[in-house]
Structures are given as structure tokens and as C-alpha cells.
Amino acid sequence: MRVHLASLGCAKNLVDSEKLLARLATAGALVGAPAEQADVVLVNTCGFIDPARQESLAVIGDYLDLKKARPELKLFVLGCLVVRDGAAMRRDLPDVDGFFAIDQHDAIVRACGLVDEETGDTRLLLTPPHTAYLRISDGCDNRCSYCTIPSIRGPFRSRPVDDIVAEARSLAALGVLELNLIGQDTTAYGMDRPGSPGIVRLLERLDEIDGVRWLRLLYAHPARLGDDLIHAYGRIGRLVPYVDLPLQHVSDRILQAMGRRVDRAAIERLLGRLRESVAGMALRTTFIVGFPGETDAEFDELLEFVEETRFDHLGAFAYSPESGTPAAELAGRVGPETVAERLDRLLLAQTQIVLEKNRAREGEVVEVLIDGQSETPGVSIGRLATQAPDVDPVTRVRGRPAPGTFIRARITGSQALDLVASPIR
Questions:
Q1: What pLDDT was estimated at residue 116?
Q2: What is the pLDDT of residue 146?
Q3: C-alpha 167: how far from its chain's center?
Q4: Order of strands across the sheet with 214-217?
Q5: Which residue stretches of the chain have pLDDT < 50?
Q6: So what's the pLDDT on residue 129?
């Protein structure tokens, strides 16, 4: 049984895919086969916003075309989009052989004609072998007015500390050097378990694991990132000076309409404390452009805030009205041309900021974790502690140091948004 899997969407989806592959391999499947040679193709979908849904449907369509040429091929679709739109998908995609929700890995294994064996937290990494995502929770209780995650992933659920630590130890034993902590809201960790340790204690436990060099915190919520966590950055040795802090907007009116439970003044205080308390802190954020009712003045406020704050990394996307969310019922829909123009202006401003920051770093000596080789001869791809995998620019290193090694290098310039560095021998 040869299996090909396409994993779409976020890092949380990727972890689901890795665990499913481990179960299939344990049951006897040959995983990682090219789609053209596979007996079974699996598509783990994303259903978060409309562009992600369209991407998922397009990928499914590509595999349906392959199935027309190879009628014996089995095509199974799983994940968030099935949870959200399963009835419509079953109606509109009759040639798909099976649809499965997020947590139906056992049923998928059986549908492949294999005998299922529970594998716990065992994973077959789809990342480079020296880096991995560590999911500490699932679901969400924040109920932001634009977001479908609670209806797809369910209520917030923290994993037990000992289970997380055991998985982290297993990953470290396999050679993982970097653990990127993920969850819908990592700063809420433990709040659903009375008496349970919170995120700081979890980080302390993970800091004790031999072999791990970098711990990185992703998906923090600005309403929950308190002084205890800020101070932890200075004393937890492996916790890198980086935080992914999705802010979504800065206008008080829009933040309230989004249900973010934080205002601009609180955001500015938080960012100030992070930068004052943590040396070299890298701040990553995301913003939504074109939320219902967003005026020119409110967008200009956001743009000015970005220009003044000078984030190290920033992502932005156009508001997507999602059925079943309160925001979808709001009046004042912003026209698509206006949204596109605002999005371009915001991303252009951030590009200029990154270029200026990169120029200011020329000559700096840094530690680089090598991820792999570039398509450019004689150039490797690596990252600094202030660059997260998959979402941030990278550091291009001259030479061919081995993947999974740390090297010292001097920044010599930049290429687009990426840094360029030369090893120090």
C-alpha cells in the first residue's frame, strides 16, 4: 500500500498529518510515495478562510484529474474543510472515495485496508529533521467575531504537561534542535485545567530537555501575554527572543467589533514592555485589512501604527466574510478594490521597514541554524533565532554547511527580504 499525502494550511494541520502518517506507516503502508505511483492519495484540507478553501478544492480537483487517468486510485479528503463543509463536499465531489473529520485517523487507516494500531504522539516529520512543531493545545474559546476556528476545532483544550514533555523528549532523541510551540492560543495554555501549570511552567519544563537548543512561542494572544511570561524570556535559556503576537488591527472600534478584548493603549504598553525587557526581541504580528466598516481613517491609523512600531515580521490578509460568524452579519462591507489597495500599501510599508532593518544589520555576527541547500549553487538556507520556519524571511549563507548545524556568520547584505551572510571560520 503506497500512500501520498498533501497537507494544506497551518502548522497545526501539519502535526495532524505527521501523526496520521505515523499510524499508516506502523500499519504497514509505504508513505511518501509520489502521487503518480500511489495507491491512496490523502488531502488534509484547510477551511479557515475562503482563499484557503479554494486552494483545498483546487488541490482536490488536481487529484481527481489524476484519478480519471487511474480509476483504481483511492482519494480520501480529511481535515478542517470536511468539518466545515462536509455535506456540500460529499454532494459536489462524488468521485472522492471518502471524507473524514480531523480526529478520524483510525477510520482512515481502516479505509486504506490496513489494521490500525494506536501510535500515541509518534510522528513522521514533514519538516527538516532538526526542527518540529510542538502542539500544546487545540481548539479555541476566544470567539473572535471573524473566526471559524471554534466551530471547526472545538473548545480550547490544553494537553497534559507530562504528555507534551514526553513528546518533546522523543523529538529531541530523534535529533530535533528547535521546538516551535503552537496552539490556537498558546498563552491560554493551562487555563482550562484548574490547578494546572500555565505556559511559563511548561516552558521551564521544556527548557530542561537535553538536546533542544531553541524554544519558540507562536500564536500568543495580546490580551493574555502577561509580565510573568515577559520575564520568562530573560531566564529560560532556550526560549529565543521571538514572539508571534497576532494583533489583527489597532483601531479601538474595530478591535472591539472583532472581539479581541484589548485596545490600542494596551497593545502599545505590551509591545513597549516586550522590547524594554527582552534584549533583541523579534516581534511578529498579523493584521486583517478591510474588516466590515473599516474607514479610510481607521486604515490610515493602522498603517501609521505599523510605520511607527516597525515590526520585525508582519503578515496581512484581506478580511474574508465567513458564514456563521458574527462579523459576516456586520454592515459596511469594504469593496474588494479598496481592500486590495489597502493591503498593498500595508505590505509595501512593511517591506520598506524590513529592508531598512536588514541594511542596519550589515556587519553583525550571528548564529545561524542551517535548514538545507538553496537552489542557487554554493548557497545554503538558514535562519536566525529571530526567524521562524515557513513564515519569515530566511538567511542565505554562502557555502554548504550541513543541514541541522549551527554556524557563526557575518551578515553581508540582503536579497529581497532575506539576509545574506558569510560563515566565520
A1: 80
A2: 95
A3: 19
A4: 131-135, 178-182, 214-217, 239-244, 282-289, 313-318
A5: none
A6: 95
Q: What is the pTM of this model?
A: 0.94
Domain at 365-423, CATH from 1.10.10.350, 3.40.190.10, 2.60.120.260, 2.40.50.140? 2.40.50.140
Q: What is the pLDDT of residue 389?
A: 96
Compute the distance between CA of residue 352 and CA of residue 283 in angstroms, rounded to an integer. Answer: 16
Q: The domain 131-360: what is its CATH number?
A: 3.80.30.20
Domain boundaries, the chain: 2-111, 131-360, 365-423
260: exposed, middle or buried (Cβ count in 10 Å: 0-12, 13-18, 19+): buried
Query: DSSP string of 176-215?
Result: --EEEEE-S-GGGTTTTSTT---HHHHHHHHHT-TT--EE
Looking at the domain 2-111, which fold is it?
Rossmann fold (3.40.50)
Closest by Cα among 231, 205, 234, 233 to 217: 233
pLDDT at 156: 94
φ, ψ dihedrals at 348, nearest 5°: -65, -40
Can you tell me the distance from the alpha carbon of 173 to that of 170, in angstroms, rounded to the nearest whole number? Answer: 5
DSSP string, 233-252: HHH-TTEEEEEE---B---H
8-state DSSP, 9: S
